Structure formats: C-alpha cells, structure tokens
Predict the structure.
Amino acid sequence: MRVVVTGGAGYIGSVVTDQLIADGHEVLVIDNLVKGHLDAVHDSAQFAEIDLIECDNITNALGEFGADAVIHMAAASLVGESVTNPSKYYQENVVAGLSLLDAMRDASVTRIVFSSTAAVYGDPEKQPIEETDATTPTNPYGAAKLAFEHALRWYGQAYGLSSISLRYFNAAGATTRRGERHDPETHLIPLVLDVAAGRRPEILVFGDDYDTPDGTCVRDYIHVEDLARAHTLALQALDAPGVARSYNLGCGGTGYSVRQVLDAAIRVTGTDIPMRVVERRAGDPPVLVASSQRIAQDLGWQPQRQELDEILTTAWQWMQQPAHPSR
Ligand code: UDP
C-alpha cells in the first residue's frame, strides 16, 4: 500500500513509519518540521515538508505519490497548552485537519487512520473507559480532536471517506531507533528520566489531592510499538466507504499513578529522583484508563508490553545511547 503519514517526523509517527516500511509499504511522510525531526524519518520513506493548511500542495503531493491511504498524526498535543492557547489547537487540529481532508477528497484518497485521544472523554464517570461512554472533553485539546472525529463521520457520509480514529491513552517508551524528544518537554516519563540522568534537578508532581489511591493522577501508559502496531492493523481494516469507527488504545488494567511512575523510574534507573508536589495542572482528569476490548475484538490488537518497568526501560535505554540528541 502507498501510505502518507502526516507528522511522520514526530515521536509516534516515526515509529509508525518504521513499521510500515518493515511491512513492505511505500511511505510518504508529510511534516512541517515545526516539532518533528528530519533525522527521525526512515531513510526509505519519501519526505515532503508541507504544512497541512496548504491544501493545494497537499492535494498535489497525494496525487503525485499515488496515495492509497493517510495516517494523520500531525497535531498539537499538549493538554496544558491547549487550555491557555485554544486558538492554536483549533487551528492546527481542526482547521489544518480539514484542509487535509479536503485535499484527500480532491485527490480521491478515501482511507484515513486518525490519531485521536483519550482526552475526548473528559472526566469520565467510570473506568475503564469504553468507546460508547460519553465524550465531554474538559480541555480544548480533547475538544478539537473530537471535533475532527465528528468531521470524519460527516465526510464519510457525504464523500465516502472511510476512517478509523484511534483514541490514544499515554504513549510511552522507545524502540532501539526512536524515542520521545519534545522541545520543550512536558510529558511525565521523559521528564522523570531527564531527572534521573541529571539533566533536570527535580520532577514537579502536578497535584497529590486527586480522588485516586495515592492522590496523584492515574494514566494508562502504552508502549509506542504497541501503539504503532494498531495503526497498521487499522489500515488493513479500512475498507467500506463511508464507515467511521473509533477505538480506544491503551493497555487497560488499573493504570499507573504519577507516584508509581516515579517509583518505577527509580527502580529502572537505579538513581534517586527528587520530586516536589505543586498545584494541579489545568485540564488534567484524575484517571484515564482504557478498555481496549473493542480493538482487540475487531482488529485482533493486543499490547505486548504492559509492564511499566519494561516500558520505562526501553525509554531509558534509548536515552542512554551515545547518539542521543540531548548528549
Ligand atoms: N505530570 C506531572 N508532572 C510533570 C508532567 C506530568 O505530574 O512534569 C502528570 C500530569 O499531571 C498527568 C500525568 O503526569 O497526570 C501524565 O502527564 P503527561 O503530560 O505525560 O500526559 P497527558 O496525560 O497529559 O497526556
């Protein structure tokens, strides 16, 4: 298959691209490189530096490449930032996303896998969260992703677009070649490992007075390779025109609290990790844990790496590589 990966120079996109190429697909990465890294794009992938808002350029790129399908991962993805700067989140995740959909329609590309988020559920009434649960986002990031999911449904009905939205819980870990490197970094696991590596003095824990077992927020961490595998399975499942589906993508179980992540990082790295409890971060729901039964049933997806220690070990090993960019 000829697959376009938007955001393919990013953390998850680069792992998805690697897997697609290993599976024998042809890949065109489209990325504006605002946050992505060109050196994270597989050597065998084609690359185009285009912003999704440039609809005509995207249409041309899709046509020239002969795209069969798109995996749309390019997005702004920080909950906290979305609360203070909703404009950016509606622009990048809705307006630019619609530009991509219009380009797909114009280039007659009818299949899309979309990177959505657990943030579409807001502060859910029950755990684990099922796809049939109410979607009431508590921050602009989740609201914008949900708006795009809705657009996919309407584009499906009107233009025959076939879509699968994958609602990511917390992507984590690394492969031997790719890992997480955002600038600025805001995600818990890379920050904690930075402290362990001596690159930051301490980790700030955003609130320990939540209604959770130890008072800190609970999240469902999923290894980036397991997450990426769901995309290749979803690609195969995209067939009927007009069908829009959504799947949760997490490991399930009971999730891990911020404190449990810190404890695991101390075990894995063998170093002390100074921490300080500060105010809650705006927009953070106390618990987000997935039921991934639907994707297991429909697509046969199963996570291979569910243990937090194992996930952290892969991230730590990647960070320790001599060629790691922060060295
Ligand atoms: N978190 C924290 N300190 C940090 C970064 C994150 O306590 O420096 C918490 C955050 O409040 C959330 C969890 O760690 O409960 C995971 O946050 P992250 O930003 O990694 O992912 P998110 O859940 O926002 O997608």
Notes: The chain has a mean pLDDT of 95. The chain has two domains: 2-171+222-248, 172-220+252-290+299-320. The CA atoms of residues 78 and 262 lie 21 Å apart. The radius of gyration is 19 Å.
